Amino acid sequence: MARTAVLGRLNWQLGAVAELVQETPRVASLVLDVPEWQGHLAGQHVDVRLTADDGYQTERSYSIASAPENPRLAITVERLDDGEVSPYLVGEVRKGDKIELRGPIGGYFVWRGGDDRPLLLVGGGSGVVPLMAMIRHRSASKSTTPTRLLYSSRSQDDIIYRAELDALCAVGDGLTVAHCLTRMQPPGWRGYARRIDRAMLEEVAWPKPQNPIIFVCGPTPMVESVAGHLVDMGFDATSIKTERFGPTGG
Amino acid sequence: MSFISRGFRGKRRDTSSSSRVPPGQYVVSDFPVLSAGPTPRVALAEWTFVVEGEIDEPKKWTWEDFRKLPAEDVTKDIHCVTKWTKLDTAWKGVSVDTILEGVETAAEFVMAFSYGGYTTNLPLEDVSGGKAWIAYEFDGQPLHPEHGGPARLLVPHLYFWKSAKWVRGLRLINKDEPGFWESNGYNMYGDPWREQRYWGD
Amino acid sequence: MTVQQSDLKLDGNAIGGLLREIFTMEMTTAESTCAGCQKVHAVGQVEVYMNAPGVVVRCPACGQVQMRIVKGGGRYWLDLTGIRSLEFSA
């Protein structure tokens, strides 16, 4: 059960890697057992801290991919070839290794559910991670909130959580997913094949009178472009929550 | 010491001590980009550099004027307060001594100021006597905007936050005043050899 | 001079942990009124530049510096002079 009042300093905790899940060729999820975990809300993140044996330390933030209902905590990491931390988390880390983290962090980019506003989720690349936590929370809490995910990936092989998203849509309880593949499309592809633009948003977004809550997450330029279009389309800025992942999306 | 992450090495850094590496620093081979705001894009046709403040007549150069000034190739080690050190960085620029030639002033300090609003303060003697340049090339190429181009201040003997990117002028001032980082925790002087990172160091 | 979007720009979500350290409560939902242009934004929406000797927070509307945060040598330095008012729940 997630708390609503979040007071007090967050301590660094240790999570043990229980499982590693290869999601796509470059993306993996680390599923952690975190004994002192206090719970979280969908959309929040953790700060991960790595320490080398000479004392060198560095931190990164990762969105929590798992639903609050899941007793294990999952983060999903995209491996950047010239990255400092991601090649360690996706490549070196093994089951049983411990990861130092603190959290949950964030109160702005969260979806609790429990109201009657439809949900529009727009994700680019690894920006889909916090949106997936929301989708998983929706499913675990048996919510039927009408939800649309517009998810942009480079190619079909780069779609994170692809099978799970297909399965959740097939349940038919009000979740639909529109994919756009920006670089490569498989033969016969009938989804979107270009970067998210205003015309695409006009087709996918809930009509304004339905008063959706909107979450946009991904690389900074994509988030700003999408948020700009949504405001131009007449959605109230306070209904649009954004989270920028920097140039490469995490 | 806190928890150690098994097998984590971090970016390539050389922690072996050497007389060229100030205390608390490590040597890197890349050139990290640090930024406090959007990268200013300055058209060369609009670029100017000024010397103003405690001076009888302010001086001003356009890019064309500036590029006519004698320039030098310098190779220096640079030290960022965020702990990275880069050895043998190659720059081309105009010595600040050339910029200040003929300037008569009783001022003992300067405030360097940049496109985008950044400022940093230095003693006048730390930007003269062959210790500072207005650099416009790095590694034989025009200085890239993300590293401070068209031109940046280069003061290698101090922490690199003093080497103001996108520099557009020096203001001669009588009393030392804190610039952008100096007014919020960073040391007024910034000598890496005495590890003067923060207030009170 | 034209100023372009920097690749290094993030938003207030990225400093949620740091703000939590300082304020000991969740701050990304706090609303800040810019001392420059008076526009109000949730801290989660402000522009954040973290790749620097310190963190610089800027108003998404006018670009003015709202906060500077330096952590080092066992201390924090916090400059909030770019914020006219910060509103958050009790």
Provide a short characterization of the protein structure.
The complex is a heterotrimer of chains A (250), B (201) and C (90). With 201 residues, chain B is mainly beta.
Describe the structure.
The complex is a heterotrimer of chains A (250), B (201) and C (90). Mean pLDDT of chain A is 94; it is low at 1-5. In chain A, 20% of the residues lie in helices and 31% in strands. Chain A has helices at 86-92, 128-140, 162-170, 198-204, 220-232; strands at residues 13-24, 27-33, 45-51, 57-63, 73-78, 98-105, 119-124, 147-153, 175-181, 213-218, 240-244. With 250 residues, chain A is an alpha/beta fold. Chain A folds into 2 domains: 13-105, Translation factors (Elongation Factor Tu (Ef-tu), domain 3); 119-244, Nucleotide-binding domain of ferredoxin-NADP reductase (FNR) module (Rossmann fold, 3-Layer(aba) Sandwich). Chain A has a 6-stranded antiparallel sheet. Chain A has a 5-stranded parallel sheet with strand order 9-8-7-10-11, with helices on both faces. Chain A is globular and about 55 Å long. Chain B has one domain (17-31, 45-194): Alpha-Beta Complex (Sulfite Oxidase, Chain A, domain 2), CATH 3.90.420.10. Chain B has 2 helices and 13 strands; from the N terminus they run E-E-E-E-E-H-E-E-H-E-E-E-E-E-E. Chain B has helices spanning 63-68, 96-99; strands at 13-14, 26-28, 40-41, 48-53, 59-62, 72-79, 84-95, 109-114, 119-123, 133-138, 141-142, 152-154, 167-173. In chain B, strands 1, 2, 6, 7, 10, 11 and 12 form a 7-stranded mixed sheet that branches. Chain B has a 5-stranded mixed sheet with strand order 5-4-13-8-9. Chain B is globular. The two termini of chain B are 23 Å apart. Chain C has one domain. In chain C, strands 2-5-6-7-8 form a 5-stranded antiparallel sheet, with no helix packed on it. In chain C, strand 5 (47-49) and strand 6 form a beta hairpin. In chain C, 50% of the residues are buried. The chains are: A alpha/beta (250), B mainly beta (201), C mainly beta (90). Chain A binds chain C through residues 6-10, 45, 47, 59, 61, 102-103, 105-109, 220-221, 224, 241-247, and chain C through 5, 7-14, 16-17, 20-21, 24-29, 42-45. Strand 3 (40-41) of chain B pairs antiparallel with strand 1 of chain C.
